[in-house]
Amino acid sequence: MSEDTAVDDIRRDVRVAVIGAGFSGIAMGIRLLRKGLHDFVILERAAEVGGVWRDNTYPGVGVDTPSKLYSLSTDPNPHWSRLFAMGDQLFDYTRDVAERRGLLPHIRFEHRVDEARWSPDERLWVIATSKGVYRARFLISAAGVVADPSYPDVPGLEEFPGECFHSARWNHDHDLRGRRVAVIGTGSSSVQFVPLIQPQVAELHVVQRTAAWVRPKVDRPIPERAQRRLRRHPRLMTAERGLFYLITEALAAGRRFGVLRSRFQKTCLKHLQKQVPDPELRRKLLPDFEYMCKRPLISNDYLPALCEPNVTLHTGGLVEVRGNTVLAGDGTKAEVDTLILNTGFDIGVTSPIAQRIHGRGGISLADYWGDDPRGYKGITVPEFPNLFMLQGPNATSGVSSALMFSEAQAVYVADALQRFAKADVETVEVRAERAGAWTRWVRRMSKRTVYEVGGCRSYYLNRKGENVVMWPAWSAGYQLRTRRFDTAAYRVTRAGAARVREEVAS
User: Fold this and answer.
1) How far is 472 from 467, CA to CA, in rounded Å?
2) Where are the alpha helices (DSSP H) in 133-278?
3) How many domains does the chain have?
4) Does residue 388 contact residue 463 with C-beta atoms inside 8 Å?
5) pTM as predicted
6) What is the pLDDT of residues 432-443, one digit of tens each?
7) 14, 207, 437, 476 - which has most CB atoms within 10 Å?
């Protein structure tokens, strides 16, 4: 397959296919173009770019990482109006970047990827989409970690006679004023929308499965004067980004050092005591695990909202729905007419994209992983030739900006694809021994983190209690490991070669 200077709507045989046009897919497209690689398409199931910031439109939606850091290093944004940007600004930012960077001609909107299969005879990926079949020499999954909502398996939920929707698919046509509403789950989304819907509803029943640590949100507007200064002096944006990066790296040290976690935990305790005067309610909201074991929440108005007279906190999670009645694990119940599910996303082995990608022998990525998601640098997997992943196993952050990992992975993959184009490479597959060594190192590092020793169960862990989602060390270390493609870790064949090449000249 040759490198073309443009991609039209008719061609379905391409060198590179990218799944997803969220932040990760956009970062990947930018890096491909920077390397002079133009023969690629980005397959996007929706009619717009933006990923999570397109799909999540619930009241109060916004980022919980400082906006200066939650943006692409290739496209710093001087126009953030707040320290923590709101969802509509993030969505507009992704659209603006995609347009300015010339990615729109490469994006195939409303192309849902139903299945991708490796063809050993053709040595390429056959990708079945909702708009037809594509063939690509290389496949890159940028489908996202929080792309598909997870719905709880609770008796009677499907028979609930009222309005029921997931917070990630908010029903704006349903008027909440005067309603009796139950919010199922107390994750990062409910912390944002509960304070906004509380004054509207007649009754608000918050069903909490596990209490979470909540720390103060140090947010503020960014004056227009400051935005103009950043536009005039781009180096200031670089400096600000560096400062926020150092701050988040310092916070990330709490994953490994209990002394630092205890200081953060004391801050959260003071926040709880200050905002919740009722000792019984405070007891229900006090976690029984260490700070950072699960993702901490940041809010100044969530805890006060729970203290309002029209709000009831139920604990023990949702155990059953009987008609209009929701039953919680603590034995309490409530009559409601609206259910809002804040129950997270399909992640890891349950991710739909892992079930749809089939490697050598027809095995799906989900079946290959079983209960043990793993990949070399979180990017490549044995038995899946010419496949690259962004935000793969143990290759994202629960503390710093996840986009820093997406960009690091995009740099690594783009470097690989540029080398392959020069050397006329046909297939590349990570060596099983290198992938195994990497996984063992990640497991050793994870054992010393709060994710595994902090006394909680989270989606970071597999059934064996092993961290299979989060990067367990400094993010700078990950960036160093992905700055260049390490050919020696892979088995590579050139086009027309009959045997495996051990190395490709760069």
Assistant:
1) 8
2) 188-197, 224-232, 234-252, 258-275
3) 2
4) no
5) 0.94
6) 999 999 999 999
7) 207
